[in-house]
Amino acid sequence: MSAQPEEGPAPPAPAAARLRAQLRDDRRAGTWVPAFERDWAKALEDSRHTCSLTPLHDVVRTRQVRLAAAPAVDAYIDSGRDETGFVDLADALGTRP
User: Fold this and answer.
1) How far apart, in Å, are the Cα atoms of 17 and each of 14, 24, 60, 76, 86?
2) Rg of the chain in Å (alpha carbons)
3) Are 12 and 56 in contact, with CB atoms under 8 Å apart?
4) What is the DSSP string of 7-63?
5) Measuring CA to CA, which residue among 72, 71, 47, 69 is closest to residue 59?
6) How many CB atoms lie within 10 A of CB 46?
7) What is the distance between the alpha carbons of residues 91 and 86, in angstroms, rounded to a whole number?
8) Neighbours of 35 (CB within 10 A)
9) pLDDT in tens, the chain (97 residues)
10) Distance of alpha carbon 53 from alpha carbon 81, whole angstroms
């Protein structure tokens, strides 16, 4: 009898390596790669303490979604929409007690 489950999510390290390569190829690599590395290191430490791969999967999934959404964000910004009249949410809500 094996102590390891036979089926489960794939290990996050190969996905993280592919994601890291995609982030390095992006024009935002200067900010995205260090942020990914920081989040990955924290998730790795959390995983060591909890014996769970969930934090690592969460980092990969979050960064994949951000990378996939980047073209839509770029298109929105490039569309010339003027957002100078909007109010910052922190200003609208005020400080919390």
Assistant:
1) 5, 11, 10, 29, 39
2) 19
3) yes
4) S-PPPHHHHHHHHHHHHHHSTTHHHHHHHHHHHHHHHHHHHHHHT-SHHHHHHHHHH
5) 47
6) 15
7) 11
8) 13
9) 455 555 555 667 888 999 999 999 999 999 999 999 999 999 999 999 999 999 999 999 999 999 999 998 888 888 887 677 777 777 777 766 5
10) 41
Query: Is the backbone of residue 80 left (phi > 0), alpha (psi -120 to 50) or beta?
Result: left
Please count the other Cβ atoms lying within 10 Å of the Cβ belonging to residue 86. 8
Residue with tokens 């190829």: 25
- Counted residue by residue, the chain has a size of 97
18: its two tokens: 């592919």
